[in-house]
TrEMBL record, chain A:
<dbReference type="GO" id="GO:0009055">
    <property type="term" value="F:electron transfer activity"/>
</dbReference>
<dbReference type="InterPro" id="IPR029039">
    <property type="entry name" value="Flavoprotein-like_sf"/>
</dbReference>
<protein>
    <submittedName>
        <fullName>Putative NAD(P)H oxidoreductase</fullName>
    </submittedName>
</protein>
<dbReference type="Pfam" id="PF02525">
    <property type="entry name" value="Flavodoxin_2"/>
</dbReference>
<feature type="domain" description="Flavodoxin-like fold">
    <location>
        <begin position="2"/>
        <end position="169"/>
    </location>
</feature>
<dbReference type="InterPro" id="IPR003680">
    <property type="entry name" value="Flavodoxin_fold"/>
</dbReference>
<dbReference type="GO" id="GO:0010181">
    <property type="term" value="F:FMN binding"/>
</dbReference>
<dbReference type="InterPro" id="IPR046980">
    <property type="entry name" value="KefG/KefF"/>
</dbReference>
<dbReference type="GO" id="GO:0003955">
    <property type="term" value="F:NAD(P)H dehydrogenase (quinone) activity"/>
</dbReference>
Automatic annotation (TrEMBL), chain B:
<dbReference type="GO" id="GO:0015297">
    <property type="term" value="F:antiporter activity"/>
</dbReference>
<feature type="transmembrane region" description="Helical">
    <location>
        <begin position="115"/>
        <end position="135"/>
    </location>
</feature>
<keyword id="KW-0633">Potassium transport</keyword>
<feature type="domain" description="RCK N-terminal">
    <location>
        <begin position="415"/>
        <end position="539"/>
    </location>
</feature>
<feature type="transmembrane region" description="Helical">
    <location>
        <begin position="339"/>
        <end position="366"/>
    </location>
</feature>
<dbReference type="Pfam" id="PF02254">
    <property type="entry name" value="TrkA_N"/>
</dbReference>
<dbReference type="InterPro" id="IPR004771">
    <property type="entry name" value="K/H_exchanger"/>
</dbReference>
<dbReference type="InterPro" id="IPR006036">
    <property type="entry name" value="K_uptake_TrkA"/>
</dbReference>
<dbReference type="InterPro" id="IPR036291">
    <property type="entry name" value="NAD(P)-bd_dom_sf"/>
</dbReference>
Length: 197, 626
């Protein structure tokens, strides 16, 4: 069973119903560590050594955050900037994260229709996530398609319920060795066929 | 008319209020004011309080008794143990050397050897009342000088027990020390043989220690349970009076008994309750005591023998000062601390009254000797504030280590000089934080031992009173960029701000204040950079409380910054409101009213809710409009 580290970053967690439900759903799973960055580092003073240790102890890293201005909230970026050190995470001797699986779990206010070449946002979510994808690749990690909950501004109760159940399933699939070849990499993880079996 | 108790009380109170206010206005210690009031209303000037001075002195001794009780309360046995070396060392040296030299001196002056011994013992003791009052008033308790003075006084206060036990031994071979009309206020055990007297004294001390633990504390617990505050006051007074009575009964100093009682109770949970209850009584009674001392200066005795008295007084003070100076040197005090010690303890103290009258009661001293010595004691006590004043105004400013140590400094500090005034708890934190960033501040401090230590640590430090312009100049205020007032004394900050404003307007002045009232004063003087020491820590505490209650840390951190900003803005606005002048006597009530207003405003403003960025609720609402 693979160990999952959920790096969760939400400056206003107390106001986010969707994220609260998602976290609530997965927090008691075995071998899943929820690491709430805004709670741990309210002053942005990220403890690099502690973070490295956490990363080393897990096989799957999930960047779980709301989509703010087509990216992550600032503390997550701060985390990426200072924890993924040269010659530790990348560079000639940077092998610490090699072979681990990495992905984003994101929530967006706008609907899926808004994120395409015809929509208001012109690009797909996957396109916006390129910096994360390349970051993972540079560190030798396998980057998986993101898990998304979109249109949260108008999300119905039953859709929310569906989303969180899927999140839990996805994490269990990942823990049981879901492979990059098992799904179409252009799809979102919440749309893969394995979830319906 | 003058015999009426009410009239006397009015005279005492009016005299005190008038003279102490005048003394304070001139920046003098309140002790001078009280002494002056005593002289004025005393039998030899205005004559308002007639010859009852003795009775009043007796009553006023409760001020000293309470002071010693409170001192005792402050000394927990373990602190006492920690200070044992200074207490025994400095105190022992001072008392021992003074007794020895004074004894030889009085022998040489032709006194009988027993008389000389009693007198030299009395002379060795300094006035705890005067010295401690002055030290506390000036806020010098934590300094090297303050600690040394405290240790010596403490030793003296303890050694009196032994002196009082010893004096009857001197009387033994003389005429049987009984049946004198004077002795009626003294002990019932006086008629007993010396050995029994000693046993009685020891037994009573043991009694206090035992009663403290098994009688007084349980009683206080019972009283506290009733929840009636007056009862606790009554209980506190009962303890002090009770101990005093017991001690008088066995014929030793009530003050000492009270001191012992204080030490016994210092570990109990009622320590602070007793302290705060007795504090106002203590101060008033001490004031009364000082007035009584002033009133008891017998100008007729002085007029009869002016030269002998002035000569003896002068000799005694010089002798005591000399020994104190040497004691200070032996214990390696810096010059300024040593001088303060020398001048503030050079008087003969209130215990001399006790010892001398005790010896008089035992017929060791004659009436004339006693009168003379009492006058000398009172005079020496009255002179103390004046001597310390001279030391403070004339001598201290001219000594002290001024030269700076040349050392390579960081270029930031060199090109942008920073002066830090006061290196206490607050200033040292500021200084250390600056230093860890390679910024060396020039430090000004008034404790030369600290200055010396800082020098060894490689700081550029100047010793002295930072309100003196010449000292600021030698510290380089002309080239300075920033001056930080880290002292908690508003007077100092105000004085510095005046100098900076008038002469060095280019210097950036940053001031620590204790609370918002001090901050208002400085803001109204035109300073914008005022730092309330009570602000940040209290917000941190409140933040941690809310965090424990389940609020998110990041949100609280943001809210803390919001609150801080809002509070600083409101402080600046409120400082301009003209409502905190002297007319507001009931400051406490005002403060509560103001707090209530703040709290209501905060609630209305809703500190938590005014940031709507990335707030899905407000976004949803906005979306619904379309």
């Amino acid at each position: 069973m693979k160990r999952v580290l959920v790096l969760f970053a939400h400056p206003k967690f107390e106001k986010s119903k969707v994220n609260k439900e998602l976290i609530e759903e997965i927090k008691d799973l075995d071998d899943v560590t929820i690491h709430d960055l805004y709670e741990e580092y309210p002053d942005f003073h990220v403890d690099v050594n502690r973070e490295k240790e956490l990363l080393e102890n897990h096989d799957i890293i999930i960047w779980h955050h709301p989509f703010y201005w087509y990216s992550c909230p600032p503390l997550m970026k701060q985390w990426i900037d200072i924890v993924l050190e040269f010659n530790w995470a990348y560079g000639p001797e940077g092998n610490a994260l090699k072979g681990k699986i990495c992905l984003n779990t994101i929530t967006t206010g706008g609907s899926k229709e808004m994120y395409c070449s015809e929509g208001n946002n012109s690009f797909t979510v996957r396109q916006f996530l390129r910096p994360f994808e390349q970051t993972a690749t540079l560190c030798g990690m396998t980057y998986f398609s993101p898990f998304t909950v979109m249109g949260t501004h108008k999300l119905q109760e039953n859709k929310l319920l569906e989303a969180k159940v899927k999140y839990k399933k996805v994490i269990k699939l990942l823990q049981n060795g879901l492979d990059v070849n098992d799904f179409d990499s252009s799809a979102f993880l919440n749309e893969i066929p394995q979830l319906n079996s | 008319m003058t015999g009426s108790i009410l009239f006397q009380a009015i005279m005492f109170l009016a005299g005190a209020i008038l003279c102490v206010s005048i003394a304070k206005r001139f920046g003098l210690s309140s002790v001078i004011g009280y002494l002056l009031a005593g002289v004025l209303i005393g039998p030899y000037v205005l004559g308002f309080i007639g010859n009852e001075g003795d009775d009043i002195l007796h009553f006023a001794e409760f001020g000293v008794v309470m002071m010693l009780f409170l001192i005792g309360l402050e000394i927990e046995p373990k602190n006492f143990w920690k200070m044992r070396k200074t207490i025994l060392g400095m105190g022992g040296l001072q008392v021992g050397a003074t007794i020895l030299l004074a004894y030889l001196l009085f022998l040489a002056l032709g006194f009988d050897s027993k008389v000389a011994l009693v007198v030299s013992m009395a002379v060795a003791l300094s006035s705890t009342a005067i010295a401690m009052q002055t030290i506390k008033e000036k806020g010098l308790m934590g300094t090297t000088f303050g600690n040394s003075a405290f240790s010596i006084l403490l030793f003296q206060d303890i050694i009196v027990i032994f002196m009082l036990g010893f004096i009857p031994l001197l009387a033994n071979t003389d005429t049987k020390s009984t049946n004198n009309s004077h002795s009626e206020s003294y002990s019932l055990i006086q008629d007993l043989p010396v050995a029994y007297q000693t046993i009685a004294i020891i037994l009573s001390v043991v009694f206090i220690v035992v009663a403290g633990n098994y009688l007084i504390v349980p009683m206080l617990r019972k009283v506290a349970k009733t929840g009636v505050r007056e009862l606790l006051i009554a209980a506190a007074l009962l303890i002090v009076f009770g101990i005093s009575f017991l001690m008088e009964f066995v014929g030793i100093s009530p003050a000492l008994g009270a001191f012992l009682g204080g030490v016994v109770l210092s570990n109990s949970e009622f320590k602070h309750e007793l302290e705060s209850t007795l504090e106002p009584f203590k101060n008033l009674l001490l004031g009364l005591f000082f007035m009584a001392v002033g009133a008891s200066i017998n100008f007729i005795v002085i007029a009869n023998n002016p030269f002998t008295i002035i000569g003896t007084l002068f000799t005694i003070i010089v002798l005591k000062a000399l020994i104190l100076y040497i004691t200070g040197s032996v214990f390696k005090l810096k010059l300024d601390q040593k001088l303060m010690l020398t001048f503030s303890l050079a008087q003969v103290g209130e215990f001399a009254f006790v010892l001398l009258s005790f010896a008089f009661g035992l017929h060791i001293l004659g009436q004339e000797q006693m009168d003379m010595l009492l006058v000398i004691t009172a005079l020496s006590m009255s002179l103390t504030p004046i001597i310390t004043l001279i030391n403070e105004r004339l001598i201290l400013p001219n000594i002290g280590t001024k030269e700076s140590i040349k050392r390579p400094m960081d270029h930031i500090a060199k090109s942008q000089k920073i002066i830090l005034v006061g290196f206490g708890h607050f200033g040292s934190t500021v200084g250390r934080f600056l230093r860890s960033h390679g910024v060396e501040a020039t430090i000004l401090d008034h404790d030369s031992n600290r200055v010396d230590f800082l020098r060894q640590m490689g700081f550029e430090v100047y010793y002295g009173d930072a309100t003196r312009e010449d000292l600021l100049e030698s510290a380089g205020i002309a080239e300075a960029k920033i001056i930080i007032c880290a002292t908690n004394r508003l007077v100092v900050s105000k004085a510095i701000s005046k100098i900076v404003k008038e002469k060095y307007p280019h210097v950036d002045l940053m001031i620590r204040t204790k609370n918002r009232y001090d901050a208002y004063e400085l803001l109204n003087m035109g300073h914008t950079q005022v730092y309330r020491e009570s602000l940040d820590t209290s917000l941190l505490l409140a933040r941690d409380v809310l965090s424990k209650m389940g609020y998110r840390k990041y949100t609280l951190n943001t809210q803390l910054q919001n609150f801080r900003k809002y509070d600083e803005e409101s402080l600046k606005r409120l400082a301009q409101e003209p409502k905190r002048d002297e007319k507001y006597i009931f400051k406490v009530r005002e403060e509560l009213k103001q707090q209530e207003k703040f709290l209501n405003d905060d609630l209305k403003r809703g500190v938590v809710d005014f940031d709507n960025h990335w707030d899905s609720e407000s976004m949803k609402k906005a979306l619904e409009k379309h």
